Amino acid sequence: MTDAKELFDNQIKIQKLKDTIFAVNDQLTKAKKHGELSNLIAARSTPKSLHCLSMRLLEERISNEAKYTEDDDELTTRRLRDPTLYHYVIFSDNVLGASVVINSAVSNAKRPQKHVFHIVTDKMNYWAMKVWFKMRPPNNVSYIEVKSMDDFPVLKPSYVPLLQQLESDNKYKFIKHRIMLKHLRFYLPEMFPKLHRVLLLEDDVVVQKDLTPLFQLDMEGKVNAAVDTCSDFNQHYRDVMNFSHPLIKKKFDPETCAWAYGVNVFDLDAWRKLKCTEEYHHWQNENENHTLWKLWNLLTPGLIMFHKKTKILDKSWHVLGLGRDPSIGSDKVKKAAVIHYTGNMKPWLDVALNQYRDYWTKYVDYGMVFVQMCNFGH
């Protein structure tokens, strides 16, 4: 009778079903977390092929030191500071990523001789970058400058609050340069004092159209120009700022639209006039205990620094999400001036989304001997 009761008692059946569902949901949650962690590790770690490429380039420099001495002629030096040309800035420790950005921009420029590229990297990757662009310049008319972040005298702890904070805490000893490389974007006027306007590109973008119109854009007195992330990603200040903090709550509206890094036009004259760097320093000092934003978060200080100082670009200039969203339509991708592999599935990783990989590999220099030696697959 007891066995029969278990067979026909609906309450017992329902409870057993609930227990099974709960167990399966628990397994699914754990699997999702494990997958997210694996993707994050894959995205943040340096792939073996990229590490190989950097080492090969460094070995080339050591073996042929005389070939890579500083030899910029007077014309090149003048062009690198000429404010009438179109200046791009790329902060990167990824040699291949930076080369794809420049190759794609040059390939699609109508007048490449007017485009100048400034790459800023860390000390560890300086010579790898230097050797790459010496060996494989994208053409003979564009100008490329490679600098180490240590080459800028203004970037000292006495002037940079974040660097002072990092150096005072020993736990950041081995990552402080990587953090600072990301935050150098907040010092563009000091790093390029003779320039009036620059275009900041991330090292995980591909340029598909001529970007000259962005240098001729009427900024309407604004400092920054970028695409917003409200309509496509429903991203507002509330999603990226800590509104439980009284300073944030008092100063900002949580419903304000956020914008994206990746393709940003900066009017350096307006930046200097409105004292944006001083504003950043003020908020960075307030954030000494990292309660306003975390160290790796670049968007929140950017939103604060350029609040009410940002002009919104048409979305066709910058399409995001190719490193996380498999549902972006091919027409939208093809029509975009710049596509951006935001997310953990970067195009140089094995976990990249296959439907978007070819847009990036199109500009990889597979003819470069070290790329072949380091097993970068087509």
UniProtKB/TrEMBL annotation:
Its main location: Golgi. Pathway: Glycan metabolism; pectin biosynthesis. It is found in: Golgi apparatus membrane. GO terms for cellular component: Golgi membrane. It is an enzyme of class 2 (transferase). Keywords: Cell wall biogenesis/degradation, Glycosyltransferase, Golgi apparatus, Transferase. InterPro entries: GAUT (IPR029993), Glyco_trans_8 (IPR002495), Nucleotide-diphossugar_trans (IPR029044). Gene3D superfamilies: Spore Coat Polysaccharide Biosynthesis Protein SpsA, Chain A. GO terms for biological process: cell wall organization. This is Hexosyltransferase. One of its GO terms (molecular function) is polygalacturonate 4-alpha-galacturonosyltransferase activity. Belongs to the glycosyltransferase 8 family. It is a single-pass type II membrane protein. Its EC number is 2.4.1.-. It holds the Pfam family Glyco_transf_8. It comes from the Eukaryota.
